[in-house]
Design a protein that fits this description.
The chain is mostly helical. It has five helices and no strands. It has helices at about 5, 10-25, 25-55, 60-65, 65-75.
Length: about 100
């Protein structure tokens, strides 16, 4: 269960005001940059998902995102990043305590 500190979210207006104050920029400029960055992340995730499911090939993904982004994403899917499958076999029984 979340504690109060973990579930509390500061109002977005306070965060926006802080960023605008620190960067000496207006709200429209900051919101535009945030929207652009968020949309680019979603676009990248969709293209990589399409590549992973085989709907587009590697060449098309590289054209849409750039070869470095695609290579980095594919390298992250290597053997080291995958969880190991559980080994088959009987489960260990807990030892009995002597009383």
């Amino acid at each position: 269960m979340n504690t109060l500190e973990e579930s509390f979210r500061r109002p977005i207006g306070e965060e926006l005001a802080y960023v605008c104050d620190r960067l000496k920029a207006d709200e429209v400029e900051i919101l535009g940059k945030a929207l652009r960055r968020g949309l680019l992340e979603i676009y990248k995730a969709v293209v990589l998902h399409e590549l992973g499911t085989g709907r587009i090939d590697r060449k098309e993904a590289s054209r849409l995102l750039g070869s470095r982004v695609v290579e980095r994403a594919l390298a992250g899917q290597g053997v080291a990043s995958r969880p190991r499958p559980q080994r088959p076999g009987p489960r260990k029984m807990p030892r009995r305590r002597k009383t």
